[in-house]
Amino acid sequence: MIHHQHPLTSSCLGTQRQLSSFHFGQPGSSAGKAYIQASLHADELPGMLTAWELKQALQVLEQEGKIAGEIILVPQANPIGHAQSLLGYQLGRFELATGQNFNRHYPQLTQAVYAAVKHQLGKDAKANTALIRQAMRQHLQQLAEPTELVSLRKQLLLLAADADIVLDLHCDSNAALHVYTGTPLWPQCEPLARYLQSHAQLLATESGDYPFDEACSQTWWELEALCRQDGLDVQIEMACLSVTVELRGQHQVAQALARQDARAILDFLCLRGLIAGEAPALPPLPYPATPLSGSENLQAPHPGVVNFLLAPGTLVAAGQAVAEIIDPLQDKVAVLSSRYGGMLYAQELHPYATAGMTVAKVATAQSFKTGKLLSA
């Protein structure tokens, strides 16, 4: 294991934060490269414990000579956010200096990379992948780092953008385990979802505001579209499987769950050939993949106490009651139900709703949303 420290742009006199990455295996291995990070939203900690379990396991596997590829682990992807506390409450979803979400507004690589490689692409998909990754690295290295937040985004992408597999470990408020990935990547992602026993698989080609996972993977299908648009007879593969893994809810930080999730990730890396050995048989998928544009937000029509009637991970029918909003002052009770039916995969953590607040989310097979598909 090699430990690298990456200094971030200093935001204030007398301070300097750094990002830590842990490297296993051999860079440039033909077995491929995987990048795994945790707690980009600093108040989402299940992934950090899972990353620690992975770190312990990877050290043993490396000593046994079983790491065939390159694996990079970043257990704390957001040292800025972990320094943000207010009155004893850990913040970390938004940078306080700018109000920007730590998982949005990553550099868009497509146009710069296409301009650099357009006239060099050919029919050899593997050669094209190497060419595109080189252009990605060169473009990222040239980006300015005027602020601490910008330097963090740049450094994370420099570590991840040329990986075959990128796993960004998050969690929701109160949720069953679920994943987000690009629609063209679902065939690659499905084995991971099976090992993780993911209860919802939310697919999109563009979710809005360029989150980290799409910054790593979206370039590939956008390059394919640009080549097709320009009539180029070239082969572009979906060379980066980038997945946001939502490890249940914020309060579900437990070693047993972390070990279970780390084992699932290791099994997937084994299946993909980055770890030597025979991968376990794939278990059945709890619920099929559905469009992110079909994620139904159940919203409170008035303020009140929330009475949750079902737990995340429950399959609900159309019209089935999911929660009640109770106004104890005017004795109003609103029943929230899914219009389409599907998998109840997430709920609000705190049982008080303001008017219009999303209380629960249901993954449905219908596609009815347009525009930005992610919350702030």
Task: Spell out the blueprint of helices and strands.
Blueprint: E1 2-7, E2 18-25, E3 33-38, H1 46-63, E4 70-74, E5 85-86, E6 89-90, H2 110-117, H3 125-142, H4 148-160, E7 165-172, E8 174-175, E9 178-182, H5 186-196, E10 200-204, H6 212-229, E11 241-249, H7 255-271, E12 289-291, E13 295-299, E14 304-308, E15 314-316, E16 321-327, E17 332-337, E18 342-347, E19 352-353, E20 358-363
Parallel strand pairs: 3-4, 3-7, 7-11, 9-10, 10-12
Antiparallel strand pairs: 1-2, 2-4, 5-6, 8-18, 9-11, 13-20, 14-16, 14-19, 15-18, 16-17, 18-20
Helix pairs in contact: 1-7, 2-3, 2-6, 5-7
Written account of the structure:
This protein is an alpha+beta fold. Helices cover 27% and strands 27% of the residues. The protein is built from seven helices and 20 strands. It has a nine-stranded mixed β-sheet with strand order 1-2-4-3-7-11-9-10-12, with helices on both faces. The model has no long low-confidence stretch (mean pLDDT 97).
Descriptive labels:
globular; 376 residues; 20 strands; five-stranded antiparallel beta sheet
Distance between the termini: 36 Å
User: What class do helices, strands and sheet pairing give?
Assistant: alpha+beta
- The proportion of residues forming helix, as a percent range, comes to 25-40%
Overall body shape: globular
Biggest beta sheet summary: 9 strands, mixed
As a percent range, the share of strand residues is 25-35%
Query: Average pLDDT across residues?
Result: 97
* Count of extended strands: 20
State the helix count: 7
Unreliable sequence segments: none
Largest sheet, spatial ordering of strands: 1-2-4-3-7-11-9-10-12
What would you report as the Rg, rounded to the nearest angstrom?
21 Å
What is the element string, with H for helices and E for strands?
EEEHEEEHHHEEEHEHEHEEEEEEEEE
